[in-house]
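Archive maintenance. Older records in this collection stored only the sequence; we are now back-filling the structure field for every entry so that each record is complete. The fields below show one back-filled record exactly as it appears after the update. Entries are processed alphabetically, and Probable replication restart protein PriA is next in the queue.

ARCHIVE ENTRY
Title: Probable replication restart protein PriA
Organism field: Natronosporangium hydrolyticum
Length field: 670
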Amino acid sequence: MPVAQVCVDLPLPHLDRPFDYLVPAADADAAQPGVRVRVRFAGQLVDGWLLSRAAESSHTGRLAFLDRVVSAEPVLRPEVLAAARAVAARYAGNLADVLRLAVPPRHARTESTPKSAPIMDLGTSSAGSEAPNPMIGAEGAEGAEEGGWRAYSAGPALLRALAEQRPARAVWTALPGEAWPARVAEAIAATVAGGRGAVAVVADARDLARLDAEVTAALGPDQHVALAAAIGPAERYRRFLRAARGEVPVVIGNRAAALAPMADLGLVAIWDDGDDLHAEPRAPYPHAREMLLIRAQQAGAAALLGGFTRTAEAQQLLMTGWAKPVAAERVTLRRRAPVVTPIGDEPQLARDPAAAAARLPSEAWRAARGALAAGAPVLVQVPRRGYLPAVACGDCRAPARCPHCGGPLQLAGAGAAASCRWCARPVADRQCPECGSRRLRAAVTGARRTAEELGRAFPGHPVRTSGRGEVLASVPGEPTVVVCTPGAEPVADGGYGAVLLLDTWALLTRADLRAGEETLRRWLAAAGLARPAGDGGRVVVVADGGLPAVQALLRFDPGWYAERELAERRSLGFPPTARVASVTGPADAVVDLLAAASLPDGTELLGPVPIAAERPDEGEPAQPRERMLVRASRANGEAMAAALHAAAGVRSARKALDPVRIQVDPLELL
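Back-filled structure field:
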């Protein structure tokens, strides 16, 4: 009787292996690899995925039968299973957890819809395919528009490689003002013209909407699907099925689309891989960039990492020779870039001594006024949302804290009373425990307060905000002041006449390993929306011009900064030059897990470090936690992850009560 190897959908590490079940004769045809099944496990009916079938089992005991085949639809494609296994091994996780990220929940009514004919046979296309490519034209990649990939020295060669099914691997540094969705769509179109499929990942819904429109323009309607959680479970599952059935050659989406099914994958692409939205917040906490690189390596596909900046991980790919740079010549960059002026170095302070203390120095005010007078919009980036997200004592300047839970106090509006950001309690009659004063002053100014101040500074011009409450996708090319938080910058028609980067200390002084890299990423994302210098575009950054991040912004040279950042990471022994796992939990549980781990030789243990307790429920004490860092070389990274996963399985088998979280190469290490 045939045997089915099943991955049971349970989050316990000691059960992270296939289990054998007999296939009933009634389900012999439906029980094929990739289908969903129900099995009886430890006396309960649980979901699972049928991974493979065999003629017999190596298990010597008695085997149970599959309870039933939930659906005969093979939703787990072989290429997705292979990638999921590699992702689980890379991040010390369970295969079931990765499959839960890769395959959306079933929607029975959607699944019952008839299959459509495949748009193209991705499995039988040849390198010499004559399929038309609207972005390349009859004369090949050289026919691309002057303002497109031809602006980059290796751009036409990249398109030729994609059309010829060669596994080109590129780290693309986009020019300021670049219409990056159009460039990504051109790369996708070249791949499809060559007879292979593509998967592209962006960080948020705004970027996905822009890329969706450009891919539709490049390929035509019904040639791709866009996967995102916001579209609803039924529609998401319908689009997923179209990709799994081979009905479309292109899948775009957010981080979950990195594991989207694609039978003959020719290109994986990711835009702005430094955005923290690409990191999955659920176990095993994989990063979309790493999942895509795994798929490119397994499928022999091309890879494109693009952005206005460059991460240390992307620089590592260049330094090892795995990828090649795609960037513009300096003369092209100078023609496309705006003028960048730092405020805070000695020449500026000599001309304007008050600039050291002013939140909006006179140079920034003049740049904004000049842009508005020329009929152009102005973008103002501030790092904090809200009105006054942090306040302090008006006399001694001690941070104002909630007397109930110790959380930071804030002011939600001009006439609002102080309230706690943790427990939301209003604090109407607070007295400073240090000096007894009842006065409050702003410690951090948010976007709404900044918009209020700029409304008074530039009367007669509308002031709009873009942030967490309402994120603007675009604004017209009219004299308007737009105040936004990082990541919420709307695109302006014709570009912004001036971009002001305020409160830069809030980004630069964060206690984070990636603080400088993240600051430069956010600055370049905003500066890239400005008009070229020849059209009057200006960027004013309120920071010392001698800082490395400011120097990189002045020259629009993220490669230089990424190389410097990578060298510092190498000297410190931090990712991506090494593998570091964060092990967090109660102190005894962390010690127990590490004692059970057979770590490879040369592995270092750093810590323990106390972790700030999460806000407890009402009346419950906070449980103290600690974190240990486990560091290994890149060569031993997989062995370290396997050892930690096995140790978690030992604790799981012993039914240990205290959970321990394992994160390999987390974004936050400090």
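Update note: The chain has a mean pLDDT of 87. The CA atoms of residues 596 and 647 lie 5 Å apart.
Entry marked complete.
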